[in-house]
Design goal:
By secondary structure, the chain is mainly beta. It has three helices and 23 strands.
Length: 349
């Protein structure tokens, strides 16, 4: 058996063994046919043929994807900062330093140089021009990788509207490029505080919700990219999800080592909370079309291993079995002469 299966079944086997030990010791033989048991078996259950699914529930957190830190591109005093939880879209300020805004624009390429007339052509110019057009500036502007006179005029018009000096040039003190709208996770700069180039002022994230799990490395076989999971969200809301990312680097924790596992939900959750605790049910093993009995039907044999007490009419016999997968409260068994529909002894409820 694979390790997750063995771990899940160990406790169940221990429970089954505890109540059956005396029963087996009183059997006249370890396996094979035996005289009718006295007293009679208190209760029975059927051997069934079915799929068994072994699961494990782990703790996680409902959060947002793509978290990152943002640094200020200018030095000065913070005069305004976006509130935690606020959603900032293209053209809106993230923070103001000396009353000058740092504006969000959309793009994958960071602003690594000052964009102005005379700079060499490049994709960062094209990125700026696309944003100016989207914001309604530059009627005569052609979107390409060339910083033209029309680009400069569009920049000046935009700067005038947002409260920046009309220089016709754009640098990292005025604009930050991110792929899409962001949610402010944490404001790390307070009004009245000091900001400077390279100093983190905000932590932001994407708007997409996900569930994050710090999974014990001993359970990493249960986390396979693309695997379906069930999630219990705050307030008892149930949601389906799929594992979208599995980390490859182990992280040290106080109680061991973990790997990062991210889960994408099939539909947006009702909860708007960030870092809200959730329970995630992972599937560790699926056994298809196997014979199974309730775990409590297992008997601990005196010579080692396990058996079940088959009940036929008024007689019983102990049959040695090989234990396989677990699912819920049932266990896979195989053994000589066992078949679907047979009755086995279980403790009285």
């Amino acid at each position: 058996m694979r390790r997750p299966l063995a771990l899940a079944g160990a406790a169940l086997l221990a429970v089954a063994a505890a109540w059956t030990a005396l029963t087996v010791l009183n059997q006249s033989g370890g396996t094979g046919a035996a005289a009718p048991s006295k007293p009679p078996v208190p209760a029975t259950a059927e051997i069934t043929r079915q799929d068994l699914v072994d699961t494990k529930t782990v703790s996680g957190a409902l959060t947002y994807s793509g978290e990152r830190d943002l640094a200020a591109g200018a030095a000065g005093t913070v005069t305004w900062v976006a509130a935690e939880g606020a959603v900032i879209r293209r053209g809106r300020p993230l923070i103001r330093i000396d009353r000058k805004p740092l504006i969000l624009m959309y793009g994958k390429l960071p602003l690594y140089r000052t964009l102005r007339s005379g700079v060499s052509d490049g994709p960062d110019v094209d990125q700026l021009e696309r944003n100016l057009k989207a914001l309604g500036y530059g009627d005569d502007l052609t979107v390409d990788d060339h910083f033209s006179y029309a680009t400069r005029q569009a920049v000046k018009e935009w700067q005038d509207d947002v409260g920046l000096s009309e220089t016709g040039e754009v640098d990292a003190a005025q604009v930050t490029f991110l792929p899409s709208a962001v949610r402010v996770t944490e404001a790390k700069a307070a009004v009245g505080g000091k900001a400077g180039p390279g100093r983190t002022v905000l932590t932001v994230s994407e708007l997409r919700r996900l569930v994050h799990v710090d999974l014990d490395t001993g359970d990493q076989a249960m986390a396979k990219k693309g695997a379906k999971v069930s999630v219990e969200l705050p307030g008892g809301e149930q949601a389906a999800g799929k594992i979208s990312e599995v980390g490859t680097v182990a992280k040290s924790q106080d109680d061991g080592t973990t790997i990062d596992v991210d889960i994408t939900l099939t539909k947006p959750p009702k909860s708007k909370l960030d870092q809200a605790p959730v329970d995630v049910e992972l599937v560790s093993e699926r056994r298809k079309n196997v014979l199974s009995v309730p775990v409590e039907a297992l008997l601990a044999l005196r010579e080692g291993g396990f058996g079940v007490e088959v009940v036929e009419g008024g007689a019983t016999r102990v049959v040695e079995v090989k234990v396989g997968g677990f699912g819920g409260s049932r266990v896979e068994i195989s053994g000589a002469g066992l078949a679907e529909g047979m009755k086995v002894g279980v403790p009285a409820t």
